[in-house]
TrEMBL record:
Domain of life: Bacteria
InterPro entries in the record: DUF1058
UniProt-recorded name of the protein: SH3-like domain-containing protein
Length: 165
């Protein structure tokens, strides 16, 4: 139990520093999303290890922080870590809007500039799809909205990470 608590007590702020290549040949750390509505997170990299918790929503962003054979060690927005079988993860990029805040809304802008028109305001925990990130801004979309968010307001993308075009 002490080991599990130690594994779960980590920073929720992702850092791309120290990127290496994992067993998959892809960079570690990196962000991915959950492919299924039900994803068991285990305390170790096998089906014999106990389930620590279960995600119940597909599309949520998680950060891969380690790899072992077909297993990926992931970290969620709260900093909790555990192991997931690789087929339950997708390379589709998604993000949560300010999950660390309780009430502040985030302005969605028409263009990637802080003085651009506000087209909507997104609540914390809104799950969004990322189509592009450049210059500190990410183009995001979801049901009934499309626009640009300040990259620092998202969990699912690294600061200044470039995505897409």
């Amino acid at each position: 139990m002490t080991l599990l608590c130690g594994l779960l007590a980590t920073s929720a702020t992702p850092q791309a520093q120290g990127t290496t290549t994992g067993a998959s040949g892809l960079p570690v750390p990196r962000f991915v999303s959950l492919k299924s509505d039900r994803v068991n997170v285990r305390i170790g990299p096998s089906r014999e290890h106990d389930i620590a918790w279960t995600f119940v929503q597909s599309g949520l962003p998680v950060e891969i922080v380690g790899e072992f054979e077909n297993w990926r060690r992931i970290r969620d927005w709260e900093g909790k870590q555990g192991w997931v079988f690789r087929s339950l993860l997708s390379s589709r990029r998604t993000a949560l809007v300010t999950p660390w805040e309780k009430s502040d809304r985030t302005p969605l802008r028409a263009r990637s500039r802080s003085d651009a028109d506000i087209v909507a305001e997104l609540d914390p925990f809104v799950l969004t799809t990322i189509s592009e990130c450049a210059g500190g801004w990410c183009r995001v979309n979801g049901e009934n909205y499309d626009g640009w968010l300040d990259q620092t307001r998202l969990f699912g993308v690294y600061p200044d990470e470039l995505i897409g075009d």
